[in-house]
UniProtKB/TrEMBL annotation:
Protein name: NAD(P)-dependent alcohol dehydrogenase
Cofactor dependence: Zn(2+)
Superkingdom field: Bacteria
Pfam families per the UniProt record, alphabetical: ADH_N, ADH_zinc_N
Annotated ranges, domain Alcohol dehydrogenase-like N-terminal: 26-116
Family: Belongs to the zinc-containing alcohol dehydrogenase family.
Molecular function (Gene Ontology), one example: S-(hydroxymethyl)glutathione dehydrogenase [NAD(P)+] activity
Length: 371
C-alpha cells in the first residue's frame, strides 16, 4: 500500500517527505494507521549514528493510532482498536520470559536492525520506494514517521477509545521512560529524597511520577528557568539552576546530606558524575539520558564502593501494557498531566520541530499525521 513517510537517506542526512510502498501484514503482524507520533531525542541521535540503524530508513518510535488490518494468527488486537505502539521483543529469551522485554537479548536487532525481528519475513524491510529499492523499516519495531506503520501485533498496547489518541504516542518511549524509572526502577521509599537532573520531557515525567510516590523531597536540576518552573508545578519541592549553583553542594544543603536517589536525564557526561555524586551510601543513581556512542564516565571508587548503586534503565522497564495502561489512566484522572508538555506539528515541519526541541522552546514535539 502507498504511505507517506519522512525518509533519512544517509548518516546525518535531512528528513525528506516521500511516498513509499508498505507491505500488507503477514503472520503475527498488524497494520496501524498512525494518528500521531512523538519526536524523541533518540530519533535525532540515531540519524547521527549513535544507534546503528542502516540507511535509507524511516525513523519514529512513539506512534499511536488505529489498527487497520492484522495478519494470520493475530488474536491480541483487531481492526478498529486504538493502540500505542510499544517496543518489540523476541518473547522467548530469559529477560522477556522474566517480564522485562525492554531488555530483550535481541534488543539491538529489535530496535535498529532495519527490518522485521520475527516471523517468516524476519530481517526483511517492509518499506520500498516506487522503483522497488528498499528503505529500512521497523525502527523500534514501528518506523512511525509515516502515515501507516507495520508492526508486531504483540507489541501493541490497546487503549480506551475515549483516550486522546493524538497525545498518547510519547507514552511509548520518552514519557514512560521518565515515569517508569521512578515507578519500576527506583520505587522510592517513604520519606525519601529524589533528584532529577535535566527536566525536559523525560525528567518532567519523572517529577510527575515522583509526586505520586512516597518521596517527600523532589529536587529538579536544570539550566532553563522555564523548565524549573514547570517542575515546581508538577511536584518538585525544590529547584536548582545548575548555571548558577553547584547542584551537588546545594543538594547536600537541602537534604542535610546526600540524596537517596538521583535520575540523570541529560546524557551529558559531566552531569552523570554530578548525579552519581549526589547520592551517598546505599543511594541509587539511575542513568536515563542517551550519551553519544562510545561515551565513558568515571566515578570515585571509594564512595561508590560503600553501597552506592549506579544502574541504567531503558524505556521505563517492565511491560509496555502495564506501564502505558497505568499512565493513560493516571492522565484521565488528572494526576499525570503530560499533555502540557506537547506541541503539535505537521510532518512537513519535522525540521522545525527538531530545532524547537534542541533549543528548549518545546518539550515534546508530536507530529500529527494527515490522511
Amino acid at each position: 500500500m502507498r504511505v507517506t513517510a519522512a525518509v533519512v537517506d544517509e548518516l546525518g542526512g535531512p528528513f525528506r517527505i516521500e511516498d513509499l510502498e508498505l507491505d500488507e501484514p503477514g503472520p503475527g503482524e498488524a497494520l496501524v494507521r498512525v494518528v500521531a507520533t512523538g519526536i524523541c531525542h533518540t530519533d535525532e541521535i540515531t540519524r547521527h549514528g549513535d544507534l546503528p540503524m542502516p540507511f535509507p530508513s524511516v525513523l519514529g518510535h512513539e506512534g499511536a493510532g488505529v489498527v487497520e488490518a492484522v495478519g494470520d494468527g493475530v488474536a491480541s488486537v483487531r481492526p478498529g482498536d486504538h493502540v500505542v505502539i510499544g517496543w518489540p521483543s523476541c518473547g522467548t529469551c530469559r529477560n522477556c520470559r522474566d517480564g522485562e522485554p525492554r531488555y530483550c537479548a535481541r534488543l539491538d536487532e529489535a530496535l535498529a536492525g532495519g527490518g522485521r525481528l520475527l516471523g517468516p519475513r524476519a530481517g526483511q524491510s517492509a518499506l520500498r520506494r516506487p522503483d522497488g529499492s528498499p528503505v529500512h523499516s521497523h525502527f523500534f519495531g514501528q518506523s512511525s514517521f509515516s502515515t501507516y506503520a507495520l508492526t508486531w501485533a504483540d507489541s501493541l498496547v490497546v487503549v480506551p477509545a475515549t483516550a486522546p489518541l493524538e497525545l498518547l504516542g510519547p507514552l511509548a518511549c520518552g514519557i514512560s521512560t521518565g515515569a517508569g524509572a521512578v515507578f519500576n526502577t527506583l520505587r522510592p521509599r517513604t520519606g525519601s529524597s529524589l533528584v532529577v537532573y535535566g527536566v525536559g520531557a523525560v525528567g518532567l515525567a519523572a517529577v510527575m511520577a515522583a509526586r505520586l510516590s512516597p518521596a517527600t523531597t523532589i529536587i529538579a536540576v536544570d539550566r532553563h528557568a522555564s523548565r524549573l518552573a514547570l517542575a515546581a508545578e508538577f511536584g518538585a519541592t525544590h529547584a536548582i539552576d545548575a548555571g548558577e549553583t553547584d547542584p551537588v553542594a546545594e543538594i547536600q544543603r537541602i537534604c542535610g546530606g546526600p540524596a537517596d536517589y538521583a535520575l540523570e536525564c541529560t546524557g551529558v557526561i559531566d552531569v552523570v558524575r554530578q548525579a552519581a555524586d549526589s547520592v551517598g551510601m546505599l543511594g541509587t543513581c539511575v542513568l536515563i539520558g542517551g550519551a553519544p556512542a562510545g561515551a565513558e564516565f568515571s566515578l570515585d571508587h571509594l564512595t561508590t564502593l560503600w553501597g552506592k548503586r549506579v544502574v541504567g534503565t531503558l524505556g521505563g522497564s517492565g511491560r509496555s501494557d502495564v506501564l502505558i495502561g497505568a499512565l493513560v489512566e493516571l492522565h484521565r484522572q488528572g494526576r499525570f498531566p503530560f499533555d502540557r508538555l506537547v506541541r503539535f506539528y505537521e510532518p512537513a515541519d519535522i525540521d522545525s520541530a527538531l530545532a524547537d526541541s534542541r533549543s528548549g522552546e518545546v518539550l515534546k514535539p508530536v507530529l500529527r499525521m494527515k490522511h
